[in-house]
Amino acid sequence: MKTIILRTASTYLLPLLLLFSVFILLRGHxxxxxxxxxxxxxxxxxxxxxxxxxxxxxxxxxRIHPGFLMPVGLxxxxxSGIAGMVLExxxxxxxxxxxxxxxxxxxxxxxxxxxxGVYLVVVGVTLTIIMTISESS
Amino acid sequence: MEILLAVITGLLYGAGVYMIxxxxxxxxxxxxxxxxxxxxILIFLVGRIVxxxxxxxxxxxxxxxxxYADPVPQALILTAxxxxxxxxxxxxxxxxxxxxVVKTDDLDQMNTTDEYA
Amino acid sequence: MxxxxxxYPLLFQFALAIVLMFFxxxxxxxxxxxxxxxxxxxxxxxxxxAQVWQFGTVTFQxxxxxxxxxxxxxxxMLSATLVLLTCLLGLxxxxxxxxxxxxxxxxxxxxxxxxxxxxxxxxxxxxxxxxNLYVWFEVIIISSFVLLTxxxxxxxxxxxxxxxxxxxxxxxxxxxxxxxxxxxxxxLNMADLSVKIAASENKGLINITALIFFVGFGIKSAVFPLYxxxxxxxxxxxxxxxxxxxxxxxxxxxxxxxxxxxxIFIRDEFIDNLLMTVAVLTILSGGFGAxxxxxxxxxxxxxxxxxxxxxxxxxSMHSELALTGAIFYMIHDIVVKGNxxxxxxxxxxxxxxxxxKELGGFYGSxxxxxxxxxxxxxxxxxxxxxxxxWPKISLLQAGFEDNYYVLIGFILLGSFLTLFxxxxxxxxxxxxxxxxxxxxxxxxxFGDLKFKDKLNMVLPIAILALVSLYIGFFAxxxxxxxxxxxxxxxxxxxxxxxxxxxxxxxxx
Lengths: 137, 117, 508
What we know:
The complex is a heterotrimer.
Chain A: H1 4-26, H2 35-53, H3 55-62, H4 69-87, H5 110-136
Chain B: H1 2-20, H2 25-46, H3 72-102
Chain C: H1 8-22, H2 27-55, E1 58-61, E2 72-75, H3 77-100, H4 103-106, H5 110-126, H6 130-149, H7 154-185, H8 190-199, H9 203-221, H10 239-264, H11 269-292, H12 296-316, H13 320-351, H14 362-365, H15 367-381, H16 389-401, H17 405-431, H18 451-473, H19 475-490, H20 493-500
Antiparallel strand pairs in C: 1-2
Helix pairs in contact in C: 1-2, 1-5, 2-3, 3-5, 3-10, 3-13, 3-18, 5-6, 6-7, 6-10, 7-9, 8-20, 9-10, 10-12, 10-13, 11-12, 11-17, 12-13, 12-17, 13-15, 13-16, 13-18, 13-19, 15-17, 15-18, 16-17, 18-19
């Protein structure tokens, strides 16, 4: 699928989709969205880029192997789980929040970091699977 | 609405079982996916469908007095969907691999591990 | 005080898996970390066990949400024992894997996934929420798929297709049962379910739900008409993987069945009879299946099925004494079955074959190892001072008390079949003259290994053999433990009060 239309479009679509995925990630706590869907949208962006420009180009664009995102995401999720336990002596997975909301982003707390962890894991897993399938065919 | 969902659930389960009983590997996976979706809709159905009543406490009171939609089934379905996403991704990689290694997608020919050896 | 210590084994395995993932390529560090981490996990589990033994059931509300609304984790005596056994077997198999898993396999993430599997097992044992149990089951099966397929040989892939299909089917059936149960009661907390189901009037639908649960867990624990996936898949992966599968994976199904049928559902005659029929047929089909097989690992696979039948028989008799027997049998079986698969892997590593026809003369060439291997084999049969003997006393006594003579007959027949199978294996593998197996070209034989690796393969077998000797010679300790577990299981009010506080009045 090396059409010029798709290739041109994908260079513009990649940043747009990534931005949209971050938007979905951030609104996830109270509104539809969240880490899982955001991660899927982000991986769709890379998959689209890969199918238009070839997987090799996407890999060089990513710089790191997507599989590396899995342990990173899991670490973020793990620490967001034990944060309430360690910092405030509450139960495991209790959410703790900063008092004041930040502009644009909104309230910041451990659930947001958990979502970021999920986001990274989903991107890592999806891209690894898709790349494995498309490489071997 | 309930009747429609009940019929859909039945259809999905029926179609899933039918597909699982086919000999093709791809149809087997499709059958499992259909069954999983049937189970999800079943959870949604038995969790009582309430229309247009979100389970959110209004600002001027401390409890919900009216009937409200139960949020738990949706959380369960979401979890089940995410899990089945992972399983299906694995399944697709597996059948691709199986097709390459065994060189057939006929389940009746994948019986070397059952043979007496 | 918040009882955080009940989370430590679970969180530790998770953290260990993450750390191992960061060393994805470096399998040498992974091996060392895995063994060291499993040792620490065993200590944590031992601490949890000691706490529960001393102070009784501990509970934990995730995120601080009150009991019937949030996810509750409950560790009673049964859970604590199983977590301890999981970590024990986890350590032994981790040591065995560090020597026997070749780097080509370890490079695809064997060790991280192995610890995720252990995490899933611990989670399934400590959860007090039925949907959470489903989630842990999925964690277990996803990790086990990966462990089963790493390496990608033809028999592995073929067996993975069967294992995969049946396990996903079981999950869907389990999910369906949860859906119906939630529709009936509007709760997912097991203690709350117990209270609500006791008060419910819709007995017909509850019994049907119980049956759906039985089918779902039945596939996982490989009972009579649903076991065919097990013998066609458990012998294909490396021995370390077979050992963790054979030792623990089917037992999770049995655990779930015991939990659900003692805590949630009220047993009536129909369910008891069904369980009993299934137990008898499971014992028969497993025993006769083992009789005709030639591959050692396949024989052990069929023996798993046979002995699952014993546990279901204990559950079906519906008395505290019978439950004691079933729990004791489970404790014994986890240690011994895990060890037997390691023994099978060891034989394969030494001789390059698992076929009883080809093997032979093992005792002549390795007398000391043979004596070591004799311990799990004879424990399995239950030759009196060894571990398999004691639970059967409780089972038989319970059967005599309630006049289940047919069931007793079949339990004895099952033991006899096991004896026959093991005797046949002993003569074929250890005593018979070897026919001479052609040496495989690209295979690392046991003799070619370094001394450290040899030791790491013998050590776990020795540890587990020692544990099964302990269970045999100090049976009164384990009997005491099993009696306490059976008491807790039969009198559910302790569990319910630990979760919900005082038992709330129910409006039907």
